Automatic annotation (TrEMBL):
This is Aminopyrimidine aminohydrolase. InterPro entries: Haem_Oase-like_multi-hlx, Thiaminase-2/PQQC, Thiaminase_II, Thiamine_Salvage_TenA. GO terms for biological process: thiamine biosynthetic process; thiamine diphosphate biosynthetic process. Belongs to the TenA family. Catalyzes an amino-pyrimidine hydrolysis reaction at the C5' of the pyrimidine moiety of thiamine compounds, a reaction that is part of a thiamine salvage pathway. Residues 19-224 form the Thiaminase-2/PQQC domain. Pathway: Cofactor biosynthesis; thiamine diphosphate biosynthesis. The keyword Acyltransferase does not apply. NCBIfam families: salvage_TenA. It comes from Thermobaculum terrenum (strain ATCC BAA-798 / CCMEE 7001 / YNP1). The keyword Hydrolase applies. It is an enzyme of class 3 (hydrolase). GO terms for molecular function: thiaminase activity. Its EC number is 3.5.99.2.
Amino acid sequence: MGEAKLKTGSTSIHLYELARPIWQKQFEHPFVTSLGDGSLPQENFRFYICQDALFLNELTKIFGYATTRSQQLAHMERFGELLLNTIRVEQELHRSYAQRFGMSPEEMLSVEMAPTNYAYTSHLHAVASVGTLPEIITAILPCAWIYAEVGKYFSSQGTPASDHPYRDWLLTYSSDDFEQVGAWLRQVLDESTIHADDMEISRLEKIFITSSRYEWMFWDMAWRQEQWPV
Ligand SMILES: Cc1ncc(CN)c(N)n1
């Protein structure tokens, strides 16, 4: 990428430094700030939850791809766990919010994917269908890492009050378990790219920046309740 610096330390830190200005903007986005202080209108949160349920369906499949590119049994096992946890923990969180909003799981999943969500999940599928294991990890790393950063940021401001409307969401993403997912992905990426050449690193940079941009755009999509224009 134009702004790329020579990679000196670990790959994950290099990518993080590159994407930092994009990540910083997430903390300032009105969807994120109002999610944290509880003032986010329920309509926006409902839109987000429905779209995110569709996103998580696709993310689950990406973990399946990662399993097929793994050579180590321990990696296959962990990707398999991540696949199941995405369904059991994150999708369950969404189902419980949908229930509070009077929606069945089927209704939640019957909404149409918004343009940004479609573009983001298409990007993940494009990388996963032909990419190497480091490329797949790089594509999904912002997804795990940014949410853990957002969760940590809010938890540093104190435990959400018992009547905070988005308390369960905040507690899920500030949990140690969630933090561990990003940490493990970073470790595998760093180990598997120790000897990567400039071309490989440059490909990872593009993938990481693209996913980071889509993470910002996902909040923005939910803030605008984005629809297909025609
Ligand atoms: C769009 C998006 N990005 C990341 C996550 C956290 N797995 C999520 N639930 N949704």
